[in-house]
Structures are given as structure tokens and as C-alpha cells.
User: What shape does this take?
Amino acid sequence: TQLLEQSPQFLSIQEGENLTVYCNSSSVFSSLQWYRQEPGEGPVLLVTVVTGGEVKKLKRLTFQFGDARKDSSLHITAAQPGDTGLYLCAGAHNAGNMLTFGGGTRLMVKP
Amino acid sequence: EAGVTQSPTHLIKTRGQQATLRCSPISGHTSVYWYQQALGLGLQFLLWYDEGEERNRGNFPPRFSGRQFPNYSSELNVNALELEDSALYLCASSLRIGTQYFGPGTRLTVL
Assistant: This one.
């Protein structure tokens, strides 16, 4: 079983603060996706990272894929209440094509 | 362009019954994936179909089965329903190998 450890599980911060979410594994992934999920809805893709060391920016969100393609981080700058939600990382394996999901980080940003 | 669609939105069944869930992928996508998101357990991979064939299967009993039709839509069937089958069932689609995009899910409740 390929495990993806995501931390922290819960995060409650004030508007304007910065935060970082981590995903770590002992396995190498061909790519890694970050999703955001609202209650009762499906996960919405934020970004896909493929190359070791890759950094992608999406407005106030910065995503990094580790050099060895075993870990990733999501950094949010100046968080806003609209960023509240469940953030999921998911590693992909070409052979089986299934995604292994982290346990998720539930973020609450208070105004 | 339409995203992944799933039906029904909600499904209520009793123990021992059968449930059928449906998914239509994004146009041009040939792969369909099914995931189970049970409370407290995170997203677990169920099945992967591509070009009408089952390509990979997660660690679920045989009473979870499905198929993919020539138009690439898919059905997930769950036989002999148990209380612990209550969950959000998510369908995703992708090109043969690529980023997976999720539908809104079907909430299955087993009474």
C-alpha cells in the first residue's frame, strides 16, 4: 500500500495569515495533484505537478514538488475566508493509474 | 465544456439491496475511475476502466463491480449493501494516462 501522509489535519487561522500544508511519502509518484473539496461535492483540481523540484503558482497559492517526487507542499499567502475548505493531495502511479490520497487538511480562515 | 456528471445525486437503500450509480466522463476522456469517500476514511480507490476494460481494482470485495460502455460512460454496482457502504461515491475521468477530474459524487445512504 502506498501511503501519503498529509499534515496538518486541521488548521484554523485568521484572515491575512500564511500557511503551509505538507504531503509526504516514501514512494515516488509520477505526478501529484492538489484538490480542494467543499462539503458534499467532488474534489476540484487546483494543480498538477510532474517534475521533481517543480514550483507552480496559482494567485496566492504556491505548490512545490520535491526533488525526489516523494513529497509536496502547498503554501497559501494572506489567506482569505474564501480559502476555507478541505485540501487534498493525491499521488499518481503510472502503472496502476490510481490516485493515492492524503488524509486531507481542513482549513478554516476566520474573518 | 461539460465536466464529469454523476447520477443520482442521492440514493437511499436498505441493507441487502443493490445500488447502481452512473457516471459520464468529460468528452474525449476514455478512462473512468471510481472512489469511495466514507466518513473518517478519506478517498479510497475502487475501480479504473479504460476503453471498456477493467484495468485496476482497489481493495474492495467482489460485490463492488462495474462496467464501462462504448460511449465511455460507466456504472458502479454495489450488491448486498451493508451499512458501512454508506459514503460519497466519486467518479473521475481522464485521458488514457493523465490528470483526473472529479464529478460531484453520489451520496449513498444504507439504512
Notes: Chain A touches chain B at residues 31, 33, 35, 40-45, 48, 88, 90, 92, 94, 96-104 (CB under 8 Å). Chain A has a mean pLDDT of 93. The longest strand of chain A covers residues 85-92. DSSP finds no helices and eleven strands in chain A.
